[in-house]
Amino acid sequence: MSASRARRRDVAIVSFAQLPPVRRDTARDETELVQPVVTAALRQAGLTRQDIGFTVSGSCDYLIGRPFSFVTALDGVAPWPPIAESHVEMDGAWALYEAWVRLQQGDVDTALIYAYGKSSLGDLPAVLTMQLDPYYLAPLGIDAVSLAALQARALLDSGRATERDLAVVAAARRGGAVAELLATPYLVAPLRRHDCPPISDGACAVVLAAGDAARRHARPAWIRGIDHRVEPHQLGSRDLTRSTSTAIAAEHAGVATIGPIDVAELHAPFSHQELILRDALGLGAEVAVNPSGGALVANPMMVAGLTRLGEAAARIHDGRARNAVAHATSGPCLQQNLVCVLSSEVAS
Amino acid sequence: MDRDEEVLEAPYRLEYTYQRSTGPVIGRFLGALRDARLEGVRTASGSVMVPPLEYDADGAATGEPTVVGPGGVVTTWAWVTEPRREHPLPHPFAWALVRLDGADSAMLHAVDAGSIDAMRTGMRVVPRWQDERTGSIRDLACFVPESAAAAAAAAAAAAAASAAAAGDDRPPVTMFPSPVALDYTVTAGRHLSAYLRALAERRIVGGRCPVCTKVYLPPRGACPTCGVPADAPVEVADHGVVTTFCIIRIPFDAAPFPPPYASVAVLLEGADMPIFHLLRGIPPEEVRMGMRVRAVWVADDQLGPTLASIRWFEPTGEPDAPHDQIARHL
Ligand SMILES: [Zn+2]
Fold first, then answer.
1. How far is A113 from chain B (nearest CA, A)?
2. Are both B168 and B226 inside the same structural domain?
């Protein structure tokens, strides 16, 4: 393990661009969501489309209701003459993981990753139900907020958090007074509206560079470790109050060994999930969590996870942070989790 | 951005009429539900998994079925005040993970408790069965808080089902309907909306790429070669040249005419991308590449923001264009 780790290429996030997420963006189709963020990320990296060795995207056709929507979106990266390209039907954070693996092969030095999500066209709860077990869960029509509420109750019952703790997280991310938040009615008890993410449309793009291609940049955000893990889909077989997959991914990504962590961008669409993730990552009170606001402020599906990696990298790019942890999640109740450790130092 | 007056939108439904095969383990569980009975499966490590899967989390195949419940304990729950259309109950209810008696894992279902005040973690519940059961997780209508009356009702339903099953020759559950229907409001975006609105005025508007100067039809958010918006508006003629075509000879539901008929790609004068449409006014066997054609528009009162504002194309009768003219547009 350590021998293969030593042979890894040094890869860094060298640029990040995003559209300001909005509740509903009617003017842009998928190509028009992608084109501006890709153009901005390339410009920031000082690269042209021809310089990019590998392109990979994350999106979900069901959000927009158009089969092969990700192919239409490709126009936004100017794929002619033909480019080396891939796609994951997942959050763009997993596209970044694929690009990182691709760069390890050594024959290309740069990769472009983008993600887009336009949830406003459909009925998002109904779309998300389709990702569930088709035999035992999907026929019941259980929605994402209800599933998260089951997890929140389990956490409250464990005695490791209170409804007030949830409101404190919500108030920190999106503002408001804790007492006033607690006075609002439940949406799906024990979750209140402020504990749940907004529905958003958005897009973002990241450029990765390896070795000397990354060193050309003033402050590359070096990927010191990255790993992702998945848990069983059957909810009743999981301990919903712990994120075991996050803890294992964190161990492999080197969260505990990087040194003092300045900032953590956690993909926690629900307030109680931030508490579970902080616990799984072993983050102390001194770590600034989600200064961007996180997914409680804007949650474009398939984008919000890659945005966490981009936001964390941006803090290293501008010198505000030395070490950062970024996390992305996918599936109900934090089923699958990716952890990435970023640093201004290429190696310790 | 909120609703944009310039942008067209329309309702759209995505539907798939899927059937799902169950496999033997899930099929057996669904068959038991049809008989008002709850079954788990024994895993290699000796625990009882409900609902059953083919493999446990260690990847070992699961074994023999074993009867569980009918009662169980709520391990966590959530209260729904406003049920969605696809939820199992039309009035406020709880979702719960229920660990059935004799099981080691919990199953998800609804609890019809009447009020949030009747719910608590650790409470006991019993099943309420549908009268008509087909081999689905919804044969179990929901759970209800355990009481003498509820337990008696559940026992009576199970006894009746077991008596009925004794002389039963129904086939095992191997398939069940699993339809998908998702509703969307699709929006055309600003560029496509401008193109569609022009069609309602008998005009065809393309978009020019500012870099390579190609005119796209309809205008696009990005030129695939240059990566910049190809949206400088350019008025394009409603006549042009057939670049390629095919003759449809097989009837199908959405066919516009009885076959045979010609479907053509037309390079309109002033555009660099052909559009696809129908060709009439000529026997199909006489259609040629390079043939000059013009649009036949619908009557004024039928014009709308759709390509159907052009009924079809027809030959102009002018001499064919030389192949050179269409060669780079094929
Ligand atoms: Zn161009």
1. 15
2. no
